[in-house]
């Protein structure tokens, strides 16, 4: 997934606050691309499910996403396998 892709996902999460599920499994996210998604997650107030399976995220990228999920009060399921 390119940085342009993840910027678009972040923008969609910001603009369409009613999104309930996000599956970004198998996307090979990097620190920079994860940050773009994390920024959008702060505004995704209806997000209930996020799937991050099979992404080699470690360190800052994963931390950014998990931290910003704290701003999603309806989160019910996180798959980081």
What shape does the CA trace take? globular
Number of domains: 1
As laid out across the biggest beta sheet, the strand order is: 1-2-3
**End-to-end CA span:** 19 Å
CATH fold-level label: Leucine-rich repeat, LRR (right-handed beta-alpha superhelix)
Helix content: 40-55%
**Number of DSSP E strands:** 3
CATH superfamily: Ribonuclease Inhibitor
* Radius of gyration, in angstroms, nearest whole number: 11 Å
Largest sheet: 3 strands, parallel
Q: SSE order, as H and E?
A: HEHEHE
Query: Count of DSSP helices?
Result: 3
User: Regarding CATH, which class?
Assistant: Alpha Beta
Mean pLDDT: 86
CATH structural architecture: Alpha-Beta Horseshoe
Instruction: Report low-confidence residues grouped into runs of 5 or more.
Output: none
Q: Which class of secondary structure composition applies to the elements?
A: alpha/beta
Strand content: 5-15%
List the helices and strands and how they pair.
Elements: H1 3-15, E1 21-23, H2 31-41, E2 49-51, H3 60-69, E3 77-79
Parallel strand pairs: 1-2, 2-3
Helix pairs in contact: 1-2, 2-3
Overview in brief:
The protein is of the alpha/beta class.
Characterise the protein shown here.
The protein has 81 residues and is of the alpha/beta class. The protein has one domain (3-79): Ribonuclease Inhibitor (Leucine-rich repeat, LRR (right-handed beta-alpha superhelix)), CATH 3.80.10. It has three helices and three strands, in the order αβαβαβ. The protein has helices spanning 3-15, 31-41, 60-69; strands spanning 21-23, 49-51, 77-79. The chain has a three-stranded parallel beta sheet, with no helix packed on it. Helix 2 (31-41) links the parallel strand 1 (21-23) and strand 2. Helix 2 runs parallel beside helix 3 (60-69). The two termini are 19 Å apart. The relative contact order is 0.23.
């Amino acid at each position: 997934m390119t940085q342009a892709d993840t910027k678009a996902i972040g923008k969609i999460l910001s603009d369409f606050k009613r999104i309930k599920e996000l599956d970004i499994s198998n996307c090979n996210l990097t620190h920079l691309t994860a940050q773009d998604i994390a920024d959008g997650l702060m505004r995704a107030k209806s997000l209930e499910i996020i799937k991050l399976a099979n992404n080699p995220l470690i360190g800052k990228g994963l931390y950014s996403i998990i931290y910003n999920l704290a701003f999603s009060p309806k989160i019910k399921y996180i798959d980081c396998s």
